Amino acid sequence: MGPFRYAETVFGTFHHNPTVRKLTPAQAGGGASKYVMFMIGDNVSPPADSGAACGGNPMDVHHLEGYIKMAWADSVLGPWTSSRHTMVPPGSVDDWDAMVTNPSPLFLANGSAFLYFRGTQWPANGDERIGVAAAASWKGPYGRPFGNNDPLWDAADQAAFVEDPWVWEDARGNFHMLAHGHWDENGYLAFAEHPEGPWHFRHTPTYTNTLTLTNGSKVTLKQRERPQLLFDDAGRPSILYTGVAPPWAKFYGYTYTHAQRIDGSTQKYTP
Q: What is the 3-state secondary structure (H, E, C) of 147-176?
């Protein structure tokens, strides 16, 4: 729950949206365990101005947002080695996944890997769908497991246009996904018996952008997205982390990370 304190910069601007997984020795390919980080972006100098004077970046937005990278290390403290290329190629310019971003890796006990992502035609339109790529190991290469390259559920269901997937396998071997709904800033759940699917989307929000604080008051956040989970020693979701903006903030104008305990967890952790 924190408080967290700044330690060092691992990757510079414009790397963002990191998510880290610990691989067992078997998943890592034998020997020792390993840590794998997926993120988006690349090395780009920040703009010289700030606030209202901050102009648009001259680089192609597809290069900045639609560029999924991977890094790996023997320790969560690093040093980290970064991939030299994007891990998931986009679809054609007319496809639902003309831009791929927001990765969420899943590693099975046998070492095989799945990488879930948001597909969109942004900036042509803001429709968001979830897709998956697969590989024999965490190293890749990652390819599409479906010959027709479809998203994970009904592409025409606008009520299921979500982004920021976060996927995990429970103790019974079922698969779950949290995702962010841009139209209402709530969180949504999907589930499947197999990592490839079929995936079933739940249209009722799993969490909302309204928080009940410890003093009993409620606050409705301007934004609440990019969910990630911390699990307790029993393997149950214990803490939900989201990127949020307070009610008074401009859209993407002021953001921070929020941590919320989840009922039913033992809240015990082994480093």
A: CCCCCCCCCCCHHHCCEEEEEEECCCCCEE
Residue 70 corresponds to which amino acid? M
**How wide is the angle at C-alpha 50 spanned by C-alphas 102 and 9, nearest 5°?**
50
- The pair of three-digit structure tokens given for residue 200, joined into one six-digit string: 């079933």
What does each C-alpha distance from 216 to 186, 211, 212 come to in angstroms? 20, 10, 6
On the question of pLDDT at 194 being above 70, the answer is yes
User: How far is it, in rounded angstroms, from Cα 179 to Cα 163?
Assistant: 6
**Enclosing H/E stretch for 239:** strand 237-245
Q: What are phi and psi of 53, to 5 degrees?
A: -85, 0
pLDDT for 18 equals 96
Q: Secondary structure of the chain: what % helix, strand, coil (to 5)? A: 5, 40, 55
Helix (H, G, I), strand (E, B) or coil at 28: helix
- Using one digit for the tens of pLDDT, what is the confidence trace for 38-78? 999 888 776 666 655 555 554 454 456 778 999 999 999 99
- Contact between 163 and 179 (Cβ < 8 Å): yes
Question: Can you give the pTM of this predicted structure?
Answer: 0.92
Among 232, 236, 36, 55, which Cα is nearest to 139's? 36
Helix (H, G, I), strand (E, B) or coil at 36: strand
